Amino acid sequence: MASNQQTRPGLGALAKDNANGRIGVVMGAVGGRVQMRPTQGGREWDAMPDDVVSLSAREELSARLAARNDDSRVGL
C-alpha cells in the first residue's frame, strides 16, 4: 500500500469524519453508514464510509491527549 493511501479504521478505532472534520470512535456500521461517537462520549452520528479515515499519528496523539486532559479536569 502506498504511504499516501489511508486505510479504513476498524471497530473501536479513533477516526476522522472528513465530511464535518469531527474525530470520534468507530462504533459500528449499519445500513451503509458508519456510526461514530465523540471521544468523550455523547450522541453518535452517522458518517458515509468513504468520509471516515484513520487518523495520522499526530491527530491521534492530539485527540488522546485532549481526552486525557478533559478527564483530569473532572478528577477521573
Explain this structure.
By secondary structure, the chain is of the alpha+beta class. It is 22% helix and 33% strand. It starts with 13 loop residues before the first strand and ends with a helix. The chain has a five-stranded antiparallel beta sheet with strand order 4-3-2-1-5, with no helix packed on it. A hairpin with a 6-residue loop joins strand 3 (33-38) and strand 4 (45-47). The chain has one helix at residues 57-73; strands at residues 14-17, 22-30, 33-38, 45-47, 52-54. It is globular. The chain has one helix and five strands.
Helix-strand pattern, N to C?
EEEEEH
Could you say which structural class the secondary elements and strand pairing correspond to?
Answer: alpha+beta
What's the total number of strands?
5
Helical segment count? 1
Strand content: 25-35%
Low-pLDDT ranges = none
Instruction: Kindly report the spatial arrangement of strands forming the biggest sheet.
Output: 4-3-2-1-5
- What's the overall geometry? globular
- What kind of sheet is the major sheet? 5 strands, antiparallel
Helix % is 10-25%
